[in-house]
Amino acid sequence: MPVNATESKDVIRVPLVGTMYSRTLSSASGSSSSSGIVGVGVVGIMIVGYLVASGKDQRFVNAIPEKITNSLTKQETFYVSKRPGFALLNTPATGNTGTAIHVWSGQGSGDKVISAFGATNSTIYDSTTSLGTTTGVVNFISDVLVGTTANLLMTTRSNSAYFYPTGGALTSISDVDFPGNVAGETITGNFANLNGYAYIMTISGRIYNSDLNSLSAWTASSYLSAQMSPDAGLGVIRYKDQIMAFGKESIEFFQDVGNPTGSPLKSTSQGYINIGCISQYTYSTFDDTVVWLGSSAESGIGLYMLNGFQPVKKSTPWVDAILATTNSANLYLNCIKLVGKSFVVITSTSDNRTYIYSIEDDMWHEWSSTSILWQHMSGIATGTKYIYAVTEQTTSGKVFIINPSSMVFQDDSVNFTVTIQTNKLDGGTSRRKFLSKLRLVGDIQSSATSVGVAWTDDDYITNTTPRNVDLVNADAYLSACGSFKRRAFILTYTGANALRLEAIELELGQGIH
Description:
The chain is mainly β. Helix content is 1%, strand content 49%.
């Protein structure tokens, strides 16, 4: 948060936006309870040294940093807004956890919300109507047209798969040549569909395909193996006109070349990327690209996006350091469109923390709530951009929604806290400053919206008791804020209103210049 924009001799305006956690490592903060690792420095794939400084420096929790550029003047203005909350859509399965959700784009108006609930087996719901029950827990739902019939496709954690045709019944893929029924093979990830074939990967690195224009019929010889690296398979995904196969430490691309027997696929000239994926739950398509949490023997963990056929790293060192201490089985990646922005959502269920990357603004922030309601998400690609979610963190049996035309700022009717923490500010001098007035610059509210303002003068070790500033007032400020040499501010808001802040203004006494 820069402080080089001085509006007058004794007033400093501090924009409430910036890079989270400018200090990645620190011996002053605590270790990760999720991993059992004491210390987080990443050297190759070794964990050595210091500890993640996750409580220090700038933080934006439940507060979306946003950059707005004037199309004429090209001037940039920065804001921080409270994230929308997740409201209740419906309750299909009280007492059960939600394990998968999908918007069935190929059926009807393309807005049917299909969900899976259950801890041992899954019941599949169209809204609140049961479509049937699977043996095993469903972990992925997708859809595909077979001829002119829209079908749902599902994989389970019990090495089985199902399809549901429009007007038909939920049906297990029972062909003996389906890889889940082949001795020694275990399916992983979701289906990928291309040119009339359904593809699924196994952990042995094989990519199996269905017979042409069929989901039920499979042939024993219809597969090929990832060839360029002796790697364990994690899953396949369609990218443009190719199939992208993820391993733990590598990626390979395949194209349909119409082989008359065996697999129709052949490894392409794009070939091979020496970065894999950490789990079947941490890759996704987004617009015209693919996003994933990548891993390799040399580079640890990071967030990557494809640019053409080249990986581009998007995560910062502090994200990488935190992810390095989290069990990959507890990480989930989703991609959503929200408030006009594109977000990659990385959720850690082991410590109830979510890290959000804004693609357009190239900035990170966090989400937090009493329970993670957004573990599995899906959205509508056309029309109104609704976002739907289910979670395995509660047994509420609920489907949640973000409706952009009727946004709420609670999670399932429960308030959550916005926290905006600044870097340490000293005005460019170590002399003592006297803060006569602190003013919040932001949207004026129509009803009481009290923001707590606290500060720390000892490098985030201790904070003052928050003092409230009500944004219903046109001039929202605190007076008599004491003196300091170097100070960071912590703003918190726990109400149910929308909130958008631009900056804090500091009126300083002598000593700043």
